[in-house]
Amino acid sequence: MPLTAPASNTHHTPARVFLAVFVIAFGMLQGNPALADKAERVSRGEYLVGLLACARCHTTGALSQNPREGMFLAGSDVGIAYTRYIEGEDPGVVFPPNLTSDADTGLGNWSTPEIVRAIREGIDKHGVQQVSVMPWAGYAYLEDEDAVSIANYLQSLTHQTPGAEEGKPRQPVKV
Predict the structure, then answer these.
(1) Beta strands in 19-119 (DSSP E)
(2) Rounded to whole angstroms, how far apart are CA atoms 140 and 136?
(3) What is the pLDDT of residues 6-18, one digit of tens each?
(4) How many structural domains is the chain composed of?
(5) Distances from the Cα of 101 to the Cαs of 95, 106, 111, 131, 159, in angstroms?
(6) How far apart are CA 149 and CA 154, in angstroms?
(7) d(CA 102, CA 80)
(8) Which of 125, 122, 119, 126 has the alpha carbon at shortest distance from 143?
(9) Whole-number Å distance between alpha carbons of 43 and 58
(10) In what helix (H) or strand (E) does residue 174 lie, and over which residues does it extend?
(11) In a domain, 129, yes or no
(12) Is residue 114 part of a domain?
């Protein structure tokens, strides 16, 4: 018996088309474990960044409940006061940096291990110890996979160049 097209198009409902696309995409990810692992790490990193509330400091306006639209994790022009709390010395102000993939103001030129080191040890790309405003001492206890997931998520962010940060110091300012 020759093959003929079905009399009606009932076999191509939106649900069936979605299911077919999903099965094909899932099969492609399964065929490339690195791609599946990377996608899972980025998703896990997004979850952890939300859980750790990184955007509260690293998004302009978030501390005042008015985050600047389109500038998620692109740094803040609101300074955060700090001091070396044990010694009560060196008061100053720090401006949370851009965590997007922008090459000039963000993490665009950072490697995954450099980002992980900054998260867990508070040491930047250039080997400089950062002030403890960011709670890196607590983040030191992150599992390796979680720290890498956060780095992968940050690297996946579209670069944002925050105009409000121009002229703002990159390093803490002593008062």
Answers:
(1) 80-84, 89-94
(2) 6
(3) 444 445 555 554 4
(4) 1
(5) 18, 6, 11, 22, 4
(6) 9
(7) 22
(8) 119
(9) 19
(10) strand 173-174
(11) yes
(12) yes
Round to whole Å and give the CA distance between 8 and 98: 55
**Rounded-to-integer distance, Cα 38 and Cα 113, Å:** 15
- HSE-up of 89 (CA within 13 Å, CB side)? 1
pLDDT level of residue 95 (50, 70, 90 thresholds):
confident
The SS3 call for residue 75 is strand
140-163: pLDDT as tens digits: 999 999 999 999 999 999 888 775
Residue 119 belongs to a domain: yes
The answer to whether the CB of 161 falls within 8 A of the CB of 102 is yes
| CB atoms closer than 10 angstroms to residue 137 | 11
CA 158 to each of CA 25, 80, 124: distance values in angstroms, whole numbers, following the listed order: 23, 25, 21
By residue range, what is the domain housing residue 67?
33-174
Q: Residue 160 contacts by C-beta under 8 Å, 6 or more apart in sequence?
A: 70, 71, 72, 73, 74, 98, 100, 102, 106
* Residue 61 · residue 55 · CB < 8 Å: no
Q: Is-above-0.85 flag for pTM? A: no
